[in-house]
Amino acid sequence: MLAGATVRLSGAGVDSARLDAGLILGAVLGMDRATLLAENTRRLSGQEIARFEALLARRLERRPLAQVLGHREFWSLDFLVTEATLDPRPDSETLVEAVLAARQGNPPARLLDLGTGTGCLLLSLLSEWRGAWGLGLDRSPEAAKVAARNASRLGLASRAAIVVADWSSGLRGTFDVVVANPPYIPEADLAGLAPEVARFEPRTALVAGADGLDDYRRIARALPELLAPGGLVGLEVGSGQAGAVAELLSAEGLLVSGTVRDLAMVERVVLAKKRLANTPISH
Ligand SMILES: C[S@@+](CC[C@H](N)C(=O)[O-])C[C@H]1O[C@@H](n2cnc3c(N)ncnc32)[C@H](O)[C@@H]1O
What we know:
Elements lengths: L1 H10 L5 H13 L3 H6 L7 H15 L4 H5 L1 E4 L2 E4 L12 H10 L7 E5 L5 H9 L4 E6 L2 H13 L6 E5 L10 E6 L14 H6 L13 H13 E10 L5 H10 L3 E7 L5 E7 L10
Parallel strand pairs: 3-4, 3-6, 4-5, 6-7
Antiparallel strand pairs: 1-2, 7-9, 8-9
Helix pairs in contact: 1-2, 2-4, 6-7
The site of S-adenosylmethionine has 21 residues, from helix 7 and strand 4.
């Protein structure tokens, strides 16, 4: 079964064919990869074969593996993933790591995640900052539902609120930490991306105008009012966008404190702070 599925997935252009075949079969049989290999002489029932073929067919059409399996791991936590949510990327763990490091010894009380999707950024941070309360918002009601379910499944619902909103319009109050991984793909680049992304991930989670910066512009304008004095913002950025995003934040009077690279050495995160009320602006 595994060998045959691997050949079919390779033929469909899936790079990680062997791995994906194993993960799909493991999901059908409720086994991890080690058990699966150890049980390689087991005969599958007709029902198991039918279930395997159904999931495999979805992956063969190049649907992302996380959508096929219905969940994925991020920050060592298990997140439900649907067609309405971006599949959380390992790159985004760089943002979680960066804001945790920037607030080490100074955990926030109130946290905001703009464009929460599965809730992966908000909920990972709340799992680390045990005394914090957080708000995740998304324009997509379907994504917001998934984030709310993830909050419950992870036992974080009492410290997380999920709302449907167009960025921060309608929000009142300030936050000690704001994070966002907004859409950042330039319109014209979408068609050139892998079919998993271009055909199956929600377009509204991906594309942000002609230069990919439209949503950073809107978010940057809102940040001075959203951040508490001394508050921190961490934004995930696309490859080559860090400089432009840092400029947008500076133009709003925020102090850019640095950028952080991901494991592929791409500048992936821009960090900035709102001045404390009594810090003079230097010229
Ligand atoms: C790149 S995805 C990030 C999802 C999640 N935070 C993550 O890191 O995996 C961007 C998210 O922003 C949401 N979004 C796009 N435009 C928005 C808007 N104007 N207001 C609120 N959310 C928006 C999308 O629905 C999507 O869930």
